[in-house]
Amino acid sequence: MPDTDDYRLDKRQIRGAFDRNAPRYDGAAVLQREVGRRLLERLELMKIQPRTILDLGSGTGFCSQDLLQRYPKAEVIALDLAHAMLCEHRRRLSRRHRPSWWGRRGRQRFVCADADALPLADASVDLIVSNLTLQWCQDLDRVFGELRRVLAPGGLLLFTTFGPDTLKELRESWAQADGYTHVHAFIDMHDIGDALVRSQFETPVMDMEYLAVTYPDVRALMRDLKHIGAHNAAGGRPRGLTGRQRLQLVTDAYEAYRRDGVLPATHEVVYGHAWAPEQPLARRREDGVATVSLEQVRAGLGPRR
Predict the structure, then answer these.
(1) Residue 29, helix vs strand vs coil
(2) Can you give the pLDDT at residue 10?
(3) Which residues of 122-156 are buried (b: 16+ CB within 10 A; e: fewer)?
(4) Exposed site from 22, 62, 63, 232, fewest CB < 10 Å?
């Protein structure tokens, strides 16, 4: 991801966009729910019975609901940057009149916080699930460091995010209209895997697939992006209103992608999972130097389970 001011994300803009659009989010988040469903299906292959689960970037609670059903004895922490999204999640629960999957009191907690600085104790979470949230994080090393900190030994991190080809049609159409940044620069799958290794996660696995959502016109696409809170929060975004002439240039350019009467919006969906070591091999000092004892090295060379 280019480390330039044009692509640097404004966290206040991100939070504000999700807060404003929380009541409309569920009506437009078709892709987000589908990707979340595919992500959670992967838990069927994981031999894990977590007691405490963190739903990072929980939004209105789609993944949290599934996790409560899947692990009936676990506590789920729904954590989101946007307070209004958590409020919408709680309203959904109240409208359902405490359904059977709610379980005993205290199984669901709500935390409004930033993934960069989690208000959770070290090694306090057994499973972290994050669906389409990491693309809103500027510094993956910092975020993965926090996730590694709160994950208990042998715990699992399971996530999705968007790769560089996401919304490529929209990005290229805007490029023909002006020189501003209108679509974020998403991080490559291999760079995400490298960041996991740097944060001392074990056996990271990455894969991806392309999913296309189709629209009758560009305005419908932009409306959906707005309603899910996908506001342009990049530093290089235009500060004024988009004029009618520029919007027409984008519309005309996007028409080149029309197939079978509809316009595609490509999404490169990246899936990843990794484990926290059963026995952490290194302790990193403030100066960045990692120290490893001889006993830890010998233990780390033993047979894996």
Answers:
(1) coil
(2) 87
(3) eebbbbbbbbbbbbbbbebeebbbbbbbbbbeebb
(4) 232
Tokens in use for 98? Answer: 């405490």
260-293 pLDDT per residue, tens:
999 999 999 999 999 999 975 555 444 445 444 4
SS3 243: coil
The top-level CATH class assigned to 5-163+184-213+269-300 is alpha beta
| Cα–Cα distance for residue pair 70/41, rounded to 1 Å | 10
Token pair of 259 as six digits: 């197939």
253 pLDDT higher than 80: yes
Check: CB of residue 71 under 8 Å from CB of residue 44.
Answer: no
293 Cβ contact partners less than 8 Å away, ≥ 6 residues apart: none
* pLDDT more than 70, % of the chain: 80
d(C-alpha 114, C-alpha 15), whole Å: 10
Considering only CA atoms, which of 37, 27, 87, 84 is closest in space to residue 65? Answer: 37
Model pTM score:
0.84
Note the pLDDT tens digit of each residue in 108-153.
Answer: 999 999 999 999 999 999 999 999 999 999 899 999 999 999 999 9
The Cα 116–Cα 107 span in angstroms is: 25
Question: Do 148 and 200 form a contact (C-beta atoms < 8 A)?
Answer: yes
